[in-house]
Amino acid sequence: MSQLWQNTPFYRIGRLYVDACIRSSFNSIKVFGRENVPSGSAVILAANHTNTLMDPLVILQNNKGPICFGCRSDIFTGRLAARILHELKIVPLARQRDGVQALKDNFGVFDQVTDLLAHNVPFTIFPEGTHRPMHSLMPMKKGVCRIAFQACEDCDLPVYIVPVGIDYEDFFRFQRSVTIKYGEPIDVRNVLAEYDNEQTAMHALTDLLYARIAGLITYFPDDAGYEKAWRRHLKKLRPKRDWVQKFFRGFAAVVAVPLLVIFAILGFLFWVPAEILISRLKDKAWSNTIRFAVILACLPLQLAINGIAAFSLLPPAGGAAVLLLTAVAGPMFYRTLNYLNDIIK
Are residues 95 and 191 in the same domain? Predict the structure, then answer.
């Protein structure tokens, strides 16, 4: 089994395909403050957690080298799953709900994380401990501090926590935009030196991290006024259009309908299984993760099916055109659907 910090051929080749699928999942991905990530240092990226597995995926996509992630330990069931997740540079982090023994296992994981930090491989953690599709934050858990403090003890490099804010245009609809902002790095050794004991430093660090992440996202306090404040914000974002703009949008909708049908037929494996699975979900925050996973898994099969049919019935140029359209059919189906929904609204 490879070391977490190693950039293996399996990882490099897999990243090319995964990164392409991540980019195709969004209308746009905007990144700001990437220069705030220190080089030649032990770097922990600490981000808000609103959109299940899409959160680590968007961070992965804009970091070109190896990067490791912490993930809930209950998905590491069986040797095969654990081996695959290890090769993908994902480590298990137990939560209090997982029990005392699982929490004890975290110490061994912390050693692995410290080792990869010493090799200049960033580690990404979501210090809220769980996801929630809201433009707010939950209290920071202490795991990020424990990892950072252990890195200070075991690693000779400077240790930084970089706050990361992930802002989605829509938590539940595919092919919307996302913005990632990297904030000013926090020097962990300076925080430790400022306080008399580790517990006080831990509380100060979690408070500071909360404030830094909140400043990087569209943030509303998680209180009784959240829904009202969010609706006011959406109303401000809604553009006002005159009759000319409405006319042209209506004309564009007429053109978009046949395009939607074409993409739906060419990419039926992308959206039919995904929407069936989503209809059975209790936690709708997993919707876009399901759509991404289905496209990732089904793209080769959809290309094979459409390619065989197209080259059997059409001349070579026509078959090649069908394959090109198939490659973008999943994202374009959802993008066209969003466009039509926006016009109706």
Answer: yes
Residue-wise pLDDT for 90-145, tens only, equals: 887 766 665 555 556 666 778 888 989 999 999 999 999 889 999 999 999 998 99
Q: Reduced to 3 states, what is the DSSP secondary structure of residue 40?
A: coil
Domain limits for position 40: 9-214
Alpha carbons 48 and 166: distance in angstroms, whole number: 6
In a domain, 110, yes or no: yes
pLDDT per residue over 52-100, tens digit each? Answer: 999 999 999 988 889 999 887 666 666 776 777 777 788 877 666 655 5
Question: Quick check: helix, strand or coil at residue 28?
Answer: strand
Residue with tokens 């209180």: 223
199 and 62 within one domain: yes
* Rounded distance between C-alpha atoms, residue 44 and residue 120, angstroms: 10
> For the segment 171-223, what is each residue's pLDDT rounded down to a tens digit?
999 999 999 999 999 999 999 999 988 999 999 999 999 999 999 999 998 77
Cite the beta strand spans of the chain per DSSP E: 28-32, 42-47, 68-72, 90-93, 123-125, 159-168, 177-182, 186-187
